[in-house]
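Case 471 in the screening queue. Each case pairs one protein sequence with one candidate compound; here the compound is arginine. For every case the pipeline is the same: read the inputs, emit a complex structure as tokens, and attach any notable structural observations.

Predict complex for case 471.
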Amino acid sequence: MELWGGRFRESTDQRLADFTRSIELDSTLADDDLVGSIAHVHGLALAGLLSAAEASAIVAGLEGLRTEVAAGTLAWDPALEDVHLNLEAALATRIGPLAAKLHTGRSRNDQVATDLRLWARRAVAELDGAILGMERALVGLAEREGDAILPGTTHIQPAQPILFGHHLLAYVEMLERDRGRLADARRRLNVSPLGSGALAGAGYPLDRAATATELGFDEPSANSLDAVSDRDFVVEILAAVALGMVHLSRLSEELTWWSNPRFGFVRLSDAFSTGSSMMPNKKNPDPAELIRGRAGRVIGALAGMLAVLKGLPLAYQRDLQEDKPPLFESVATYAAALGILAGLLESLAVDRARMRAAADEGFITATAVADELVRRGIPFRTAHHIVGRLVGAAEAAGIGLADLDDATLKGTLAGAGEPAAAVLAADPGTPGVLRAAAAVEAALASCDVIGGTAPARVAAAIAAARQRLGE
Ligand code: ARG
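Case 471 output:
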């Protein structure tokens, strides 16, 4: 008969037992459950519900179980439904009938809510470390290859030249915000449900502030109904993880393109790529593809969790048990993806010559040339039109903007109306100035604003990132 079976006259249908059981999943919470129980025992003793001798005997039993859990020697009994009932039974095996006093003033509802918050707090800390590890890999690659020049794109079309380091640091910014979102979630989740009972609050004068403090929570939850049924913190973590995975997926997508020989910008190490069972030539960026794919699953976990919650009346409903698979899987996926991408970046070979050669395509210094005309007194719209003409001429001639001859440059300016003609008249050296402005290095250097890709800005940003990462 089940622990809760007093009022039941029939035993549970095996199919139902299989359907409701959660031990395969929630055994992950075992140590958190035991830590929560130890705090609860201290609370019971403080409230005079356990003698000092009883409390220390129960705590000793629970500590013994922690050792077994850590060693992996505790056998889980599927007939005992979940981690809470398994551990209570294991305690009884260890210390005898005294174990029957442990669950005083407590329900599995406040128990599991406490366990999961303890687990989530630790998971967030681990993810934070993993994100930092990936940031270090990005900054390390930026230090190593950051001054390589590549064509920045919009609409996947060549747009303006950028430094590879600038591109990598864009991801550092995203990852920093991802850390911030997890830190926000951590701040709100760190309250103690313990003492909320099944839904109405424990029927004993438990000092909830004391148990909250013992468990490292900032305070006890303010409303027992909310405490046992709130899974906002699961959603917040899933949302932060989903967005974090989206960022990893975007970088993964870029890596798949960059490693295609048409680009040839990067080469994945053998350790971070895979082959084909049929095509001996293949070297595939599978880790990047799988991270991209798993981002989809994590997004699904977030949507699924919201769907589980949306129709739930107060307070605890068994539906809430469905919080664990999406949370556990998504956190594990994110942690693994961060580690994989960090390793991939650390071992990534960069072909600077291929990147630089690509920057010579697509007239990507056109904006810089227009900017130079503006500096000489031509309104931007006119300058845009003039350079558009120059791009057309260069494209027709099969050359770059920096290769245009004096005649073409002068003719285009002269034909563009008064201010342009005046600029040419004032400085006959204008064609040479425009050719210089059309150089990729000059275009890069001109983007010299906070957050811009000018080499000095990027070098300073890399140094600042390195300092923030503390090395
Ligand atoms: N396995 C349950 C969960 O994860 C534990 C709480 C069960 N409470 C209950 N009254 N059946 O939510």
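Case 471 observations:
- The CA atoms of residues 235 and 303 lie 9 Å apart.
- The chain has three domains: 14-104, 109-208+222-355, 358-470.
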